[in-house]
Amino acid sequence: MARILDLTNLMGAYGTRLLAELGHDVLRIETPKGDGVRREAPVLDSAPRTEASAFHQFLNAGKRSAAIDLATENGRKLLLALIAKSDAAVVSLPLPLAEEKLLAANPDLVLVRLDDGPPELCAYASAGLLAITGEPDGKPTMLGGHVPCAAVGVHVALAAVAALFAKERSGAGQVVDVSAPQCLASLAEQVWVEYSATGEMMERLGSRGGITAVAGALPCADGHWMISVPPDPRGWANFVQLVPHPAFKDDASLADEAMRRERKQEILDSIAEWSRQQKKNAIVEQAQSLHIPAAVVTNPLELIEDPQLLARGFLKAIDHPAFGKINFPVGALASMFQQAISFAPRLGESTAQLLAELGYSASEVDRLRDEGIVG
Amino acid sequence: MTGDRPLPLSGIRVLDFGHIVAGPFCVRLLADLGADVVKVETATRQGRTGARRGQRPGGTNGRTPHLYHINRNRRSIDLNLKTERGLAIARQLIDKADVLVENFSSGVMERLGLGYPTLAKSNPGLVYCSMASFGQSGPRHGWTGMNVTLQACSGLMLATGAEGDPPIGISNSWNDYIGGLHAAVAIVGALSKRRATGKGCHLDVSQFEASVAMIGSLLFASAVTHKPPARLGSRSNTAAPQGVYRCAGEDQWCAISVQSDAQWQKLRVLFGGDLRGDTLAARLAHHDAIDTAIEAWTGRLGPQEVERLLIEAGIPAAAMRRANEIAATEEWRWVLRPLKEHGEAGPKVIGLPFTFRGSAPREATEAPRMGASGSAALSDWLGLDESAIAELMREEAV
Q1: Which of A112, B178, B256, B383 has the fewest CB atoms within 10 Å of its CB?
Q2: Average of pLDDT values for B137-146?
Q3: Where in chain B is the domain with CATH 3.30.1540.10?
């Protein structure tokens, strides 16, 4: 597999994780103080400060870490030596060295240049995505958990694997330019299509769905569930079996999707009146047995025990050196490719090993460490 | 970007059994990377108009606007897979394919006789990608899923919004895009592995898992703390103040994100100095009060004016842009591409948001009418001549 240097910020870090999930040797180059991902909250108490970020623990899992101060001449020399022995580098702009120097060190390098663009929230607003996220009458909001950054990351991964594949076929590397704002804009495609084709503006729907007439997240006794009432008559008949509300049983006109669209709110209120007395898992299981699209609205705490994720190996019970026994999110591609994913590396964990590979003696490594050039 | 180096997937043959958004979007990414795509469709199974159905006036080439966009850059062959002859042609095309993509419910391809183990016997190099909502195994593998239900059960809706808000989603087919992107990465990765081993594989993508992975960090946090993570709204732990602020006009907003103490001092100057919080910690502690002060100012100005004043002062800000405003932004000018058939004056479609130096981007061609390019696909992939194709037509399999 390829050796890939990872010099990305939060925008690109999920992308390089996906490369590790495919089995590549991803080497994260960070400053001796630790990069920004290590400072991203939630911060977990039971670990040293540079290891305590949940984002670091997930996004850098499967990677190695070398701490090199690229602001120093010797640090940049080290980077060029590593570039010469790598297949690819994925780098958030600005580049630490001129592009010509990087490519001179390795003319067959795959170089993925990521323009992070403005802060995540600003890019999300410009792209047209903020206008479609949030309650219809409330404040628009960004998707949480840095999901927009991760969405950019998947594009970074796609650009990188494609260029690596091209290099395997032709022997030649390539420079790929990825723009985070453009990635987010491309994901607002439907906003554009709707407007350019019909003149309609896609709006915020909050917890409602936009495809079938009656769809949305509704309260249960123990949380929320999501229902999308099937548009066809047979689906409606099944739905009435699931939700035996008198308002539905006695009103044959509601078998028509167009009528349901007109009376959407009233129907949602009736469903909610019923579901408030129900347990979410029970009704969702019953809905699914009737082939009705329904789901429990889950939070990350519930997901960490999710039977589907456990059964398919997305979650793996492990004993973490810092955090003890936990269900570890292996990842969507790693579980599919049955690729083992190591825990996120301690800052500079692999520095000495890499320098040894480059031919540095133990005393030279010590000297570089004393000078603060590596960590 | 121009150049004569071929795109990374040039010469790779992809057979698209996808429908609605997730599968066809994944295939479009592969097409934009240079792949040669044939879409297998069945005229008798045309009911699934897909994304945002029910609100659509007619589209183009018999497809709704959304499906016209999602299915571009491929040929279409109309095969009735319920007939022996239709199935036989599908099998011949599959034997010539490098990649097959399908996003039916788990079990459908097997029932058609097109399951992976069967196809791998005659085409061991095939990379076969399934994209069922919950994958092909596990207690929920047979469950029905769609974008909104997957947004709900993947944690996205409770990772979004502020404490006390109801679940909040995004109005587009977000989950389909995320599933399609992950599948595309897996497919190209599998093509690389095939170069080393000579063997294809069955990629059992779960759209649910792709979506959950997007908040993997929050899962990790919950696994350690046994608590659900805080819902931050649009705030950040590393930048403050950050938020979406109400501006003058109806439903007008501007995003502001102060990234450093230096930017904060610039904001104070702009505001006449009367704001507390010299450090990030202090600003996070006084976020509510700071927001009130900011909104007292933004509320008097239009969002683009707020954006302009803040950017001029060196503070990151962006007006919330709606559909009628996005095309003017720089990032949109880059991603919008003309269609070969209609030129600059025609409808614009969305291209790949990245470019390969030395390779010209794939020219966008419009989604074909169903079955319109079946003959070309048969002659190109199977080497059939006109008379053989005509014979198939007579048997009404194509």
Answers
A1: B383
A2: 95
A3: 242-326
| Contact check, Cβ <8 Å, B160/A130 | no
Q: What is the pLDDT of residue A321?
A: 92
Topology of domain A215-298, per CATH? formyl-coa transferase, domain 3 (3.30.1540)
3-state secondary structure chain B: CCCECCCCCCCCEEEEECCCCHHHHHHHHHHHCCCEEEEEECHHHCCCCCCCCCCCCCCECCECHHHHHHCCCCEEEECCCCCHHHHHHHHHHHHCCCEEEECCCCCHHHHCCCCHHHHHHHCCCCEEEECCCCCCCCCCCCCCCCHHHHHHHCCHHHHCCECCCCCCCECCCHHHHHHHHHHHHHHHHHHHHHHHHCCCEEEECCHHHHHHHCCHHHHHHHHHHCCCCCCECCCCCCCCCEEEEECCCCCCEEEEECCCHHHHHHHHHHHCCCCCCCCHHHHHHCHHHHHHHHHHHHCCCCHHHHHHHHHHCCCCEEECCCHHHHCCCHHHHHHEEEECCCEEEEEEEECCCEEECCECCCCECCCCCCCCCHHHHHHHHHCCCHHHHHHHHHCCCC
Task: Indicate where chain B has its CATH 3.40.50.10540 domain(s).
Answer: 13-214+368-394
Mean per-residue pLDDT, A265-271:
95
Which pLDDT band holds residue A25 (cuts at 50, 70, 90)?
very high
CA distance A304 to chain B (A): 6
pLDDT tens for A289-313 read 999 999 999 999 999 999 999 999 9
Q: Select from 3.30.1540.10, 3.90.1070.20, 3.30.43.10, 3.40.190.10 the CATH code of B242-326.
A: 3.30.1540.10
- Which tens digit of pLDDT belongs to each residue from B328-362? 888 888 999 999 999 999 989 999 999 999 999 99
Question: Number of Cβ pairs closer than 8 Å across A and B?
Answer: 475
Mean pLDDT value of segment A43-52: 90
Give B179's contacts in chain A (Cβ within 8 Å).
Answer: none
Measured in angstroms, the CA of A33 and the nearest CA of chain B are apart by 16
Quick check: A228 and B253 CB within 8 A? no
Predicted TM-score of the model (pTM): 0.97
Closest chain A C-alpha to B88 CA, distance in angstroms: 30
What is the fold of B13-214+368-394?
Answer: Rossmann fold (3.40.50)
